[in-house]
Amino acid sequence: MDFNDTPEEAAFRKEANDFLSKHLELKNGAKPRASGESALARAKAWQKTKAENKFAQITWPKEWGGRGGTSMEAVIWGQEESKYDAPTGPFAIGLGMCIPTVIAFGSDEHKKKYVQKALFGEEIWCQLFSEPSAGSDVAGLKTRAVKDGDEWVINGQKVWTSGAHYSDYGILLVRTDPKVPKHKGLTMFIVNMKQPGVEVRPIHQASGGREFNEVYFTDVRIPDSDRLGEVGAGWKVALVTLMNERLAVGGSPGPDWGEIMAYAKTAGTMDDQAFREKLADWYVAAQGYKLTKFRTQTALSRGQTPGPENSIGKIITANHLQDICNSAIEMQDHYGIITEADRMPADAIFQQSFMWAPGLRIAGGTDEILKNIIAERVLGLPQDVRVDKDLAFDEMKSG
């Protein structure tokens, strides 16, 4: 692995850092996740500033408002931006997953209509895949689309849709043919989240936030011109989105070994041998993940495409975060149940992240799904037996 920047990469890193230091403050430890109208307005303003200065999407072509840079420059930008208090959350799904899918499968009209507005923070997108009855089996979805002239009529429900309550558009995966096996009867569409028949219901999370949503579709009409890919080829389109999703959610923004070590010093628990052993384990895991990311970085610098080993990152970091926060709360004894930011150490970041961490183990593929990917595509182990692989969807039993 080569950990050193080339002269060109070093110059870009300096340019990126100079720009960031003029507009943002450096992070000072992990902070609670911001939400609400003011946080959304700040995120939109930062997105516009990045786009105006060609830092919004490093690898996108210049004609779409991007920089036309390399994948390695995109990695460098991500590394540098992560050091600052950058409000990027509302755009991670749209620019990281949805718009790349629109670019890959949409028409020229789609690209002209949606890409630049999303890039400049004028429109926000969400991803509408998961359903209550399907679980981690995306292809088991039941939301139906029936053709009516030049339009499709959509009825069904999606769940766990991040940001749907403030999104303008979404990419929607639905079933257009129940007479074929489940992976073959799907189609992807662009949906206007503000149109009649679309109802968004925020889910009150254990952490106190309302970032996820249920979304109901009742006789929603979508023109066939807003279809992405061919009819029945939605699974192929969805795989592009899912690949981008698992790269996007690979890391964790919550507290790491550094934050809990700093707190342990003030709490007087650094003399505890059992805690020091756990701290060493967390440090080793963090360094291992860091070196794994360097492998991805090296592959990109050589013009190679990173493989399915990227699934390792989310398994490590999500469980890592949960363990660290649980230990910090135990350290606080009975005071650990207090969640008010103004009353607790580190603005109650350990309490908030502990309640949020289990969701990270589901988002972008559950631990079990990602372990299957690693087993099958990295280690070359046999695939699970899939008895419904060639069965028509409407013949499958459901309870």
From TrEMBL:
Residues covered by the Acyl-CoA dehydrogenase/oxidase N-terminal domain: 6-122
This protein's record includes keyword Chloroplast: no
Domain Acyl-CoA oxidase/dehydrogenase middle: 126-220
Coiled coil regions in record: none
The keyword Protein transport belongs to this UniProt entry's keyword annotation: no
Cofactors required: FAD
Keywords associated with the record: FAD, Flavoprotein, Oxidoreductase
Molecular-function annotations in GO: flavin adenine dinucleotide binding; oxidoreductase activity, acting on the CH-CH group of donors
Cellular component terms per the entry's GO annotation: plasma membrane
PANTHER family given in the database record: ACYL-COA DEHYDROGENASE, ACYL-COA DEHYDROGENASE FADE34
UniProt family annotation: Belongs to the acyl-CoA dehydrogenase family.
Name this protein carries in UniProt: Acyl-CoA dehydrogenase
Taxonomic lineage: Bacteria, Pseudomonadati, Pseudomonadota, Alphaproteobacteria, Hyphomonadales
